[in-house]
Amino acid sequence: MDHKTRVAPTRHQADDRWRKDARVVRTRAALRSALVELLARHDFPDVTVGMIVEEAGVGYATFFRHFADPTALLTDIADATITEFMTAMMPTLLSADRLSVTRVLVDFIADRTALCRALLIGGGEVVRRDAMARAIEHGTAVPVIFHPDIPLDLAVTHAVNAIFSTVAWWLGPGQGMSRDRFAEMLERLAMAPVRS
């Protein structure tokens, strides 16, 4: 091939450049932060693109260069949150103390109540299902010791479903329950049935 001939980047290469561009990174971070701030004051269905761009300090068209709609932005935040959670949990997951693992999870959620409420309750079934699928995908790669008689994918699916349902209850009708009491209940309902 002639050294002057330019080859168009593949879609994957273009996506990588898009993610690495500093302006893109800053804009996406501003949009994520804006939505999280808005979720502290509004229910997710009430949040509009106009509200997000005003909070983020970016133009309306800029939002649509990055996300199709607020749900796509919330899903992006869910991905980042799950990754952050798994990183934070890794040292605890390697320990044998199941209740400590559950307490780290409960603290993580309690420190991000508005966001977790939006993901599990306010974002709708599609957002919740997508977040669960991503959590299950991450969960199968985590070094948790599940009961040897239970297939790994089934154990992870049960644990994630039980965690999501139980946490949604805690963030809704059960929001008055203390972290410690909820951690014990979550351990009993979600983790104990599948751990060895």
TrEMBL record:
Residues 48-67 bind DNA. Pfam families: TetR_N. PROSITE patterns: HTH_TETR_2 (PS50977). Keywords: DNA-binding. Residues 25-85 form the HTH tetR-type domain. It comes from the Bacteria. InterPro entries: Homeodomain-like_sf, HTH-type_Tx_Regulator, HTH_TetR. The keyword DNA-binding applies. GO terms for molecular function: DNA binding. This is TetR/AcrR family transcriptional regulator. It comes from Sphingomonas montanisoli.
